[in-house]
Structures are given as structure tokens and as C-alpha cells.
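REQUEST
  id: r-88c1
  op: predict_structure
  target: NAD-dependent dehydratase
  payload:
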Amino acid sequence: MKIIVTGSLGNISLPLTQQLVADGHQVTVVSSNADKQSAIKELGASAAIGSMADAAFLTDTFAGADAVYAMIPLSFTEPDLGAYMHNTTQNYITAIKASGVKRVVLLSGWAADLVKDENIEHLFDGLNTSLTIMRPAAFYTNFYQSIDLIKGKGLMGKFLALRYLGLGALLSGKTGLLMGNYGGDDRIVFVSPKDIADAVAEELVLQPREKNIRYVGSEEMACNEAARIIGAAVGKPWLKWVRLSDKDMLQGLRMAKVPEKLAETLIEMGAAMHSGKTLQNFHKAKPKMGKVKLADFAKEFASVYQQK
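RESPONSE
  id: r-88c1
  status: 200
  body:
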């Protein structure tokens, strides 16, 4: 099959490209960074360098493809997250219609249907194509954003410079804390990007007649349990995950200069996770868990942590 992978060589797109090439598919990777071209070719794939803001570029790239893995990178600079998501989605839709692609696998999130203003899944409903929506849980790789704070750096007053999906950490003496507007004994599902990539690779070669939604997770546990696993891997077994109020979380994001629309969306996602609604939806879907456990990822995390 001729398959288009968007997302450059990111956390999901890199292992996805590796898997698809190994399976014998003809893969084109879309990237806005020309410096990635040689690395893409080394994987055995072709590079399409351009912007997802350019519908004509996407149309040309999608021409003749059997399937497309579509994702929209989260932006920390766009002042209006909703407009950015909507415009990028419309460019995808224009390109899919014009190129005649018959199979689309769309990356979403497990809280997407619970975030009222930023859910773009329904915009794909009018396409004459086979569509699967991937709803992965909380990424293991989000923990990388907390490294400086675990090391005791990056504090802003009494609040944390919380980033992607509200994950952050601080170390003060013998008190290690992970913070967000969900945490403590809240149970959530974490997921490895490799397990997401494996699930996407499976879906790309299928042709379901109707739109389907696939949840993806690797391991379910309480936030404090996850904190202990990450903490133990870096020699801080006392690490805890304290839940902030939505108000304090929002103030922390503002202090970190996160655009207001994005900050509000992150608060809404975190609140959905604290409420248990995301976990309830995940359980209803009864997905098969992936292979990579948090303890496995913690070893990789510790290696990166030590290099910082």
C-alpha cells in the first residue's frame, strides 16, 4: 500500500513509519522541517516537505495514496487553538476529497468527546472514505516535560510552569510532587507512543465501512502509583502527584504564558480525567492494552533525565 504519514518523525510517526516500512508498504512522511529529509530517507520512506496550512501541498502529497494517517500537532503558540484546529482540519478534508484517498486514520484523544470547543472529529463525518478515529490515553512521553521541575528547576512563584496535559513536577528537599488538576488517587490510563503506532499500523490496512473509534492504552493505574514508578527510576521514590484546583492550575498555565485558549482546553481535559469520565468511556470500549508498561518507559525516562 501507498501510505502517507503526517507528524514528521514525532513520538508516534517515527515508530509508525518504521513499522510500515518493515511491513513492505510505500511510505511518505510529511514534515515541515527540511532538515528531517535525510532521516526520513534513511528509514526507507519518502519525504514530503511542506506545511499542513497549505491545502494544495497536502492534495499533491495525498494523490495516489491508499491511506493517510492524519494528526494535528498541538500548538503552544497559536492564540486561538480552536481556529487552528479547525483550519488544519479543513485543509485535510480538502486534500482528502481532491485526492480521492479512501482510508483515513485520524489521531484524536481519549477526552476529545468531552472537550466541547476543540473536538474536530465530527468534521470528518461527511467524507466519502473509510475512517477510524484513534483515541489514545495520556502519553508516557508527557513526563519528559516535567524533567526540569523534578530536578528542582523552573518554579514560578507558588505555582508550576505546567505544560502538556497539565503534567509538571517539583522537588524541594525530600518532598517530590507531580501536579495537575487531576492526580492523587485518580485512576487514569497511560499509553506508550509505540503502542499507539502499532494500533495505527493495524488500522491503516483495514477498510471498515462505517466510522469506528478505537481507544488505545498501555496501563491503567492511580496517578500516585505512576509518580512512584517515575520517581523510583530517577532516585526519588517519594515522588507524589498532588491535584491542584482548576483555578490554581489555570493560574499556573497563565504564568507559563500558555495561550489562553489552550490553557482552558488543558483544564477541561484534566477535569474530565479527574471526573473519571474518560476512564469510564475507555472501559466501555474494552480495548486490548498495549505491550509497553510504565516501568519499561521509566527506564528510558531515567536515561533522558540523567542527560539533562
